[in-house]
Amino acid sequence: MTNVLSLAVAGGRKTQGIIDHCANLPKERNAIIVTFTQSNQAELNERLSQYVGDRPDILALGWYTFLIRDFARPFIPYKFPGRRVKGFNFEGRPYRMAKGGRRFLDSNDCLYACELSRLANELVADSYGTLSHRLECIYDEILIDEVQDLSGHDWSLLDFLFNTSIDVKMVGDIRQSVLSTNPRSLKNKQYKYTEAIHWFRERENKGIIQIEENNFTWRCNKDIAEFSDTIFDSSWQFPKTKSKNYDETEHDGVYIVREKNANAYVKCFQPQCLRNSVSSGKKFEFDFMNFKVAKGRTFNRVLIAPTESIKKFIRDGIYLEPKPAASFYVAVTRAKQSVAIIVPNKGDFRLPEWEP
Fold this sequence. Notes:
By secondary structure, this protein is an alpha/beta fold.
């Protein structure tokens, strides 16, 4: 077995790397690609069709679908004889003190999404090796895209997969840890979001996984790449990003834009406007996209309506907390050529100012 984590910066062609790997797999190798978001599943399937062609032995599934199809549906009778999975309850939650089948299945025998990873772990134990043997018979490789989106009991499932004969290959960017399969879970809470890097480092130190780092970005130009590296302090030990984007335009780099000039900036450069949430950028009637929604997207230019903590960072150098830092990193690294941040009309900031 080979367990490998590839950590790549934003714009590092992580997803395409998985597709290229699948395109070169021998015909006798069966593989599955697993990811969390529906948008990433759609992108993976589109690229598989384009670059890999007709390979029914290579599938792209959502994380929940993978757990339902290969853990819950075939093995829930081991734990609850006579029960069958009849659906999926994404929004619901069991009663706090629910036990037995009620912890995992609602009254219609639909699986609770929030308890699915916990159930999968219990089924591993209750199947006495049958579940792992079945997986080993089906898959030669399991590839996980955007692995930083996993959380809670998911980490225990990865430990289980690492101990099978299946090759597990993972790609992700810890600095983009803005989503979570189960944000309310208390299991492994010390590894939530950006803290997941410590979980991986621990297993690297034990020889369980290999970590490969790719610090080249084909998206962000040099100025944006260098600015993105300043968002997390040096204690995180992230490698410096190197840009492969050598394009030059009339307006490249990272700037501040005063509130009074924001409309003129949008008119001049037509950037994609980004905000953390609906509470940001209320002064402006721009066509905003939230940071999390923008994850995975690429734009020539972005204009950011900052939170107060982002303003403190670019004004005073006060670092953001890890999760807000990840959101800001996602916003900044959507851009190829320029990033502009809206600031008050008065005050000094540590970035050059754009003026009409």
